[in-house]
Write a structure and sequence with these properties.
Oligomer: single chain
Number of domains: 3
Distance between the termini: 99 Å
Number of strands: 13
Strand content: 15-25%
Largest sheet: 5 strands, mixed
Structural class: alpha/beta
Order of helices and strands: EEHHEEEEEHHHEHHHEHHEEEEHHH
Helix content: 10-25%
């Protein structure tokens, strides 16, 4: 063993502790730094990924091959130190022995490290059997140039009869890490149950809220809530705070005074109520329209707006900000968190109960409905809509021209599935007036810009790239913490509550 000496660690330059370094644990032997950077998209791409949160570095060992499946490097918080060690070897001329010394320098602190923990061996290469006939030739050859031509081929190339077939799989594995799959018996076969063979993916249990969903053409309105919806109230609301909540807010009286409510109007009126509690309460006093003039609205049980012309003021207006001002108003939902999908199987299983056991999870929990401004469901002159897409009810639009339009419009004899009780021109005219008011409001916010009267915003606001009809009520769809089930839920967002089906008896 060679003799050596080492510097005293106390003599290290501690000023380097303020220097932050990012580490990448490259899954391979790096000989050429530039080639290693190229497999990760280059320094520019690496810097762009590092500047954003929750982004992963994609590493392709064959960067020129579009069929190369990448492995992902995930950012992990670390507290490591980077040292530079210099080895000096001297040969003593008299003794002919080598004297080795080590010089240690502190380079900085590694706060973030990118680690490639997933697999990247799920590759499907564009290869074909080699028909060259030579003994030393490879059994397979690459047909990448044929699959992805880099130049314009001649007409004779298109007329060639023989061509290799390359069909890549439509999807690959969603997980990069191997997952233990615990097989269990098929519950359908074990219990002797039968299911519709045309239905795919019914893996999740029925939801516990018992909300009644009604299509516009789905028959008469329900006359009473489901028995389980009333039973859920007695099981759910057992804490003192919950009982005080029901006494404080008379939901039945609210629906007597106004038989149709939107989600935004309800959350504004009952601000501070726990979201989970609100779901159960609404299921006992109202049903939910999925289509028609009152879609995405809660309607009092026993009341059918399709038969009452006075219900026209409760109709829904789907209004969307024009393209000129979309960048000035936030969307309903932010999709920035979905830049990179989750690549690893979660080892955590959330298991919650539908019955709260302690007062710590009362109606003052983090699930409470946040207090929003009046502009979340009402429009008055000078207001800026809260989101790019708004679901207004006509009675909540306090614009003189629109009020006059609604008053002077002739009520239809029958209720139309799209326009309700109003004539067809009312919807478009209302949008035009709202767009003009909103344009004036933005012009007042930017006094330096003059409004071009020739280019008044008169476009149909229904069109647009952002279809947020998925508002389909967080009050119903987002109930991941309501069921006490050991089974993992499918996160597809499908409504498992059965749609209300009338018996046909009048």
């Amino acid at each position: 063993m060679l003799e050596g000496s080492r510097e005293n660690p106390s003599e290290l330059d501690v000023s380097q502790l303020n220097r932050t370094i990012v580490s990448i644990e490259y899954p391979g032997r790096v000989i050429n730094d530039d080639e290693a950077f190229r497999t990760m998209g280059g320094l520019g791409m690496m810097s762009a990924v590092h500047s954003k949160e929750n982004r992963k570095i994609e590493l392709r060992f064959r960067p020129d091959d579009p069929f190369c499946k990448p492995t992902h490097g995930e950012q992990i918080q670390t507290s490591n130190l980077l040292f530079k060690i210099v080895k000096k070897t001297r040969k003593n001329r008299l003794t002919q022995k080598e004297e080795i010394t080590y010089h240690t320098e502190l380079e900085g602190v590694i706060r973030k490290t990118y680690k490639f923990l997933g697999l990247c061996d799920f590759q499907y290469l564009p290869m074909a059997a080699n028909t060259d006939g030579k003994e030393l030739a490879d059994k397979f050859m690459s047909i990448l140039e044929l699959v992805a031509p880099q130049k314009l081929e001649s007409l004779e190339w298109l007329q060639e009869a023989d061509a290799p077939v390359f069909m890549s799989p439509p999807v690959f594995s969603r997980m990069d890490l191997p997952v233990d799959y615990h097989f269990r018996k098929d519950t359908v076969n074990a219990l002797g149950m039968q299911y519709d063979g045309n239905v795919i993916g019914r893996l999740r249990k029925k939801r516990a809220m018992q909300t009644i969903f009604l299509d516009y053409s789905g028959g008469p309105a329900p006359t009473k809530p489901r028995d389980m919806a009333l039973c859920n109230l007695t099981v759910r609301f057992i804490m003192p705070d919950d009982l005080a909540l029901i006494k404080r807010i008379d939901f039945k009286k609210m629906f007597e005074e106004r038989p149709v409510w939107t989600k935004a109007a309800l959350t504004y009126q009952v601000a501070g109520v726990d979201k989970n509690s609100l779901r159960f309460i609404l299921a006992s006093v109202a049903y939910y329209f999925t289509t028609g003039p009152w879609r995405n609205a809660w309607v009092r049980i026993g009341y059918d707006p399709r038969k009452d012309p006075e219900a026209r003021i409760y109709q829904i207006l789907d209004f969307r900000i024009s393209q000129n001002y979309r960048n000035k108003v936030i969307p309903k939902r932010s999709y920035s968190k979905y830049n990179q999908p989750h690549k690893y199987a979660s080892t955590m299983r959330t298991k919650t109960s539908s019955i709260r056991q302690t007062a710590d999870t009362s109606s003052t929990s983090s699930n409470a409905v946040e207090k929003k401004g009046e502009n979340s469901y009402v429009y008055r002159p000078g207001m800026i809509p809260q989101c790019r897409q708004m679901f207004y009810q006509y009675l909540d639009i306090f614009v003189p021209e629109i009020k006059e339009l609604l008053t002077s419009s002739v009520v239809s004899k029958t209720c139309d599935e799209r326009y309700g009780w109003y004539p067809s021109h009312v919807e478009d005219e209302t949008r035009r007036i709202l767009n003009n008011y909103i344009s004036d409001s933005f012009a007042q916010l930017s006094p330096g810009k003059k409004r071009n009267k020739k280019s008044k915003v008169q476009e149909d606001a229904v069109g647009g790239e952002e279809d947020e009809d998925s508002e389909e009520e967080d009050l119903q769809l987002d109930d991941n913490n309501l069921e006490d089930s050991g089974d993992e839920e499918d996160s597809s967002g499908e409504d498992d509550d059965e749609e209300y089906k009338p018996s046909g008896k009048k």
